[in-house]
Amino acid sequence: MKFSNHIYTDNRRVFMNKRNHNLASHQFEVVAIGDSITEGLNLNRFQYVDYTWLNSGISGDISTLLTDRVSVDCLDFKPQVVSLMIGINDIRNYFNKMDYIHKLSSEDELRKVLISSTLEIVSKLIAANVEVIYTQILPVNEVEKNNGYINQFIDEINLELYNELKDDVTIIKANSFKNEVNNLDLNFTYDGLHLNELGYQVWCELLNKEVRRKLGK
Length: 217
Prior knowledge:
Layout: H1 7-22, E1 30-34, H2 36-39, E2 53-57, H3 63-73, E3 81-85, H4 88-95, H5 107-127, E4 131-135, H6 147-165, E5 170-172, H7 197-215
Parallel strand pairs: 1-2, 1-3, 3-4, 4-5
C-alpha cells in the first residue's frame, strides 16, 4: 500500500511494517509518534532513561495518516505513555502548494482537518488508557518563506488545540523554542524547520521530565 507521495516516507513505512512484525510480542512503556521531528528524537541521547521506549515517527507524516496508523505503530505495543507531535507537514504542504493528499481549498478546511484529526488521535490514545504528552506544533524560521503568516496560523492552531486538550493531556508548549519575533529560534534548528542537537536536548529534557512523572519514577 502506498503511504504518501514521498519515496522516503514510503520506505520508512516498509521499515515500520517489518519492525512491527519483529516486535509483535514486545511491550514498551513509552511510544513516540509523529513526523520527522519525532523520527529524529532519541530520548537516550542526553541522559539515561530508566524506561523502555519506541520511536514511531515517520518523516513527512500528516495528521490524517497518523490517525490511520496510531493503532499498529503505537497502541499495539501497550504503552503507558505516548509522546505526540503532529501538524507541521499539514500546514507547510498547504502553504507551499504541495498538498497532494488532502487537496484542501482553504485555510478553514486545513484548520478543520488538522484540529479534528489531532483530536481523534488523542481520543484513541485516551480510550486505550494511555497518558498523553502532546508537544505543540513548533514555529518555522525558513529563508524566503512567509514565516510570520505561517507562524501566526500555527499559533492559532496551537491555541485552539490547547483549549480542547488542556484538561485531558500534558502539553509541552512551543514557547520554549521561539525567539523574540515568534519564529523558531535559530539556536535550535539547522534548517529553520527541524531541530538540531540543542533543540533536541531541550525537547528531551521536557519530555523526560513528564514521562518520568507519569510513570512514577
